[in-house]
Structure formats: structure tokens, C-alpha cells
Design brief:
Elements (H helix, E strand, L loop, with lengths): L16 E5 L3 H12 L3 E5 L13 E3 L6 H10 L2 E4 L6 H8 L8 H7 L2 H10 L1 H4 L2 E2 L2 E4 L2 H10 L6 E5 L9 E4 L2 H10 L5 E5 L3 E11 L5 E3 L3 E6 L2 E7 L6 H18 L3 E10 L7 E8 L9 H4 L4 H10 L12 E7 L15 H4 L5 E5 L10 E8 L3 H15 L8
Parallel strand pairs: 1-2, 1-4, 2-3, 5-15
Antiparallel strand pairs: 6-9, 7-8, 7-9, 10-11, 10-12, 10-14, 12-13, 13-16, 14-15, 16-18, 17-18
Helix pairs in contact: 1-11, 3-4
This protein binds adenosine-5'-triphosphate (ATP) and magnesium ion (MG).
Magnesium ion binds next to strand 15.
Enzyme class: ligase
Subunit structure: Homodimer.
GO molecular function: 5-(carboxyamino)imidazole ribonucleotide synthase activity; ATP binding; metal ion binding; phosphoribosylaminoimidazole carboxylase activity
Length: 407
């Protein structure tokens, strides 16, 4: 692939333009990174008020599989990426007939389907050195019966829909074989995986960027704390996890990206499981074929962010190894922050929060706050881990955020 040089124009004077499928907050931060380098941007998203559409040069307001919308995106852009994994893989395939698309339809297709994703993790376990949680595929009544009869080892477990799950949606805990049957029926008998419930001591994720020339850059693992199935706090600083585990997670994520022949930014999520050993065992959970909520701290704490690397990877530009210059903690800001204890709407006290040193507020431009909706995030950076934790705790207290005891 030839590079799409920033700030360039073609013979007709049309400026180099990068496109993104999806207009959520990840698309918005991608657009900001692309524009900073001098690119024009195009977003395809059906929502007139989409966070990325609001800040992009072009907003194509059609369905993701609309042929005319896809043709317009391909016409406007020299390279195209995606900001969420549930965009139809066929749409990426269509775009790829005429434009470089990174990540490609095949790898996005794998990440869209927990069964294919787990099969991939198993296929590269020898090189990555990690396996996923014990699991069984559940698509047919015969498989249900076989699990009930032969896989008592998977209970208690978590039943997860194979497709379209996010933020803990589409998954339910089951304790017994009878409960498994009942919950699967409630999910409409859709394709699922049943995963053994593991004793987690921590969760972490690793961001890897890989170019079409096989250059690889990665960030150190960040430790993530979830509340109610949604990311609440990300710790990105020394001491966030044992160094030996961090090294293994980073190497495993790179191996997984390489085994996929991946191009773009990939986030790989891991569990740390208590196995009686000093630090626990690393287990791979899932991957997101895009920048990730847990990597937002890179905007303020690193010399190159996850979105810069996405731009560079898709445009065929160099991928330098990022350097983190400050310890950081990220606090996710969900819709709850916009309501008081009586359920009344209230604007959070940004004045006080922003008076704390090293606070970086990112709001995504969403019009309506709703419980569980990702409205923004607050990253805290500072000269050392102790002061970052102190400020993060104070900010979380002021905003009434959950997960305070994890900071
Ligand atoms: P997202 O896409 O937002 O990361 P998701 O809905 O795809 O989430 P998972 O990442 O699979 O779902 O699971 C959500 C959370 O549930 C995990 O971060 C972890 O806290 C818990 N969890 C999932 N699987 C297991 C397991 N096998 N054992 C213990 N806890 C688990
Ligand atoms: Mg997850």
C-alpha cells in the first residue's frame, strides 16, 4: 500500500481524506487525531447527532450497509477504518474492493463472533502462551444436552451470546444445568458460548498497533476495574500489575495480532486468575478490533495516542514505539454522573473537578445522559503515582463515581 500523506491533495485539489465506519466517541477521537495531522475526515453513521459526525468534515448519514453510502465513503476517502466491531463485515468487504480498509473484514468478522474469536485464541495459544477460559459452544439442543451431561466443569459459568455483546450485555451467570437451559431459552436459543466462571484477581488490556508493513508498536498493559460489567477505572502506571505478568500480556497481545495478520489498532483483554501461584495466571478474554476505552489515557499520558497510531496504521505511516511520559488513571463518566440522588438532572461540578491538578476532561458531545451511557472520561496525570491516585480519588468522590475503593 502506498502511504496517504497528511495534508496532501490529488490532481483535482481534493484533500487527503480518511474515513471511519461508525460515529461514536471512538470515531470522534479518531477524527480529532486525523485532523490534527491535516487530514480531512469522513464518518458514516446513521445518527444525525453522532459524536464523530458532529466534528467531521463529511458525515454520510446512512445505514452501515447502504450501498450508496458506502460508495460515497469510498469515493471521498483514500483509506477507511472502523470504530466499532459490530459494523457488518460485508460492508468492510465492499469498501475493500476499492480502498484500503484497516482492520480488514476478515479479522473484524472474527472479533464479532465469540466462537471464532476463541477458536483463534486456541489456534495461536502456542505462540501467545495464553489460553482462554474453558468453554463450550452452545448452538443446538443436542449441544445443550451434551453440556448438561458432560461439562459439569463449566458450572458455575457465564452464558454469553456469540454476537453483539458489549458492556456485559448479552451475558448471564448460570449455576446449574437446569438454570443453563432456562437462561438459554430466555436468550431465544441464539448461538452462545458457556464459559467457566473464573476466580479473577485482576483484569488488564493491551493495545497493539500493526502496520501493513508488519511494523508493531504497543503500549504497556493497563489494569481495568469494571463495575456492573462496564469499565469504571483504568490504571496506567508503574506498579499497576506485577512486571512479569505485564510482559507476558504484552507479548501475548502482539502474538495474537501477528497471527491474525492484523493491520490497525487492536485491544486484547486479559483476566488474571487466581491459581494459587504468587501472581496468578494470565487468561485471554476477548479482543476489540479498534482503539479501546481502556486506552483513552494515551491521549494525555503518552507522546503518541492509540488514535494517532490508528491514523498512522491505516495511512501507511511509520509506527513509532509510544512513550508514556506521565502515570495516569482514567475514570469513565457514565450518564449517572448527570443525575443527583433524587434522579434530578444536574450538570456535574466541572469547575471544582478542573481545579484539581492534572485533570483532563473529555466529553463526547452526547446530547442526552442516560444510566450506563458513556458520556465522557476524565484522565488524571501527575508527577508520580501517589499524587495521581490522590487526585483521582478526590475527583471520583466529587463526581460520585463507583469503584472508589479500587483507586
Ligand atoms: P466489553 O465488550 O464491554 O469488554 P463484554 O460484554 O464483551 O464486555 P466480557 O468482556 O466478556 O463482556 O465480560 C465482561 C466482564 O465480565 C469482564 O470484564 C469480567 O469482569 C466478567 N467476566 C467475563 N467472563 C468471565 C469469566 N469467565 N469469569 C469471571 N468473570 C468474567
Ligand atoms: Mg470485555
Amino acid at each position: 500500500m502506498t502511504s496517504v500523506l497528511p495534508g496532501s491533495a490529488d490532481a483535482a485539489g481534493r484533500r487527503a481524506t480518511l474515513g471511519v465506519m461508525g460515529g461514536g466517541q471512538l470515531g470522534r477521537m479518531f477524527v480529532h487525531a486525523a485532523q490534527r495531522l491535516g487530514y480531512f475526515t469522513a464518518v458514516l453513521d446513521p445518527d444525525a447527532q453522532s459524536p464523530a459526525g458532529l466534528v467531521s468534515h463529511h458525515h454520510i448519514q446512512t445505514a452501515y450497509d447502504d450501498p450508496a453510502g458506502l460508495a460515497q465513503l469510498a469515493d471521498l476517502c483514500q483509506a477507511i477504518t472502523t470504530e466499532f466491531e459490530n459494523v457488518p463485515a460485508e460492508a468492510l468487504q465492499t469498501l475493500a474492493h476499492t480502498r484500503p480498509v484497516a482492520p480488514g473484514a476478515a479479522v473484524v468478522g472474527i472479533a464479532q463472533d465469540r466462537m471464532a474469536e476463541k477458536a483463534h485464541f486456541a489456534a495461536c495459544a502456542d505462540v501467545s502462551g495464553v489460553t482462554c477460559a474453558p468453554y463450550a459452544v452452545l448452538e443446538t439442543p443436542a449441544q445443550l444436552q451434551a453440556i448438561q451431561e458432560n461439562r459439569a466443569d463449566l458450572l458455575p459459568g457465564i452464558l454469553k451470546t456469540a454476537r453483539m455483546g458489549y458492556d456485559g450485555k448479552g451475558q448471564v451467570r448460570v449455576r446449574t444445568a437446569a438454570e443453563l437451559a432456562a437462561r438459554w431459552a430466555e436468550l431465544g436459543g441464539t448461538a452462545c458460548v458457556l464459559e467457566k466462571l473464573l476466580p479473577l484477581t485482576a483484569e488488564c488490556s493491551v493495545l497493539v498497533a500493526r502496520g501493513c508493513d508488519r511494523q508493531v508498536a504497543s503500549f504497556a498493559p493497563q489494569r481495568n476495574v469494571h463495575v456492573g460489567g462496564i469499565l469504571a477505572v483504568t490504571h496506567a502506571h508503574e506498579g499497576n500489575m506485577p512486571p512479569a505478568l505485564a510482559t507476558r500480556a504484552r507479548e501475548a497481545a502482539v502474538a495474537i495480532a501477528e497471527h491474525l495478520g492484523y493491520v490497525g489498532v487492536l485491544c486484547v483483554e486479559f483476566f488474571v486468575v487466581d491459581d494459587g501461584s504468587e501472581y496468578g495466571r494470565l487468561v485471554v478474554n476477548e479482543m476489540a478490533p479498534r482503539p479501546h476505552n481502556s486506552g483513552h489515557y494515551t491521549l494525555d499520558a503518552c507522546d503518541v495516542s492509540q488514535f494517532d497510531l490508528q491514523v498512522r496504521a491505516m495511512a501507511g505511516l511509520p509506527l513509532p514505539q509510544p512513550r508514556q511520559h506521565s502515570p495516569a488513571i482514567m475514570l469513565n463518566l457514565l450518564g449517572e454522573v448527570w443525575f443527583d440522588a433524587n434522579g434530578q438532572m444536574q450538570e456535574p461540578d466541572w469547575h471544582t473537578v478542573l481545579s484539581l491538578p492534572g485533570t483532563h476532561l473529555h466529553l463526547y458531545g452526547k446530547m442526552h445522559a442516560r444510566a450506563g451511557r458513556k458520556m465522557g472520561h476524565l484522565t488524571i496525570t501527575g508527577p508520580d503515582v501517589v499524587s495521581v491516585k490522590r487526585v483521582a480519588r478526590r475527583a471520583a468522590e466529587l463526581l460520585g463515581l463507583p469503584g472508589l475503593d479500587a483507586i
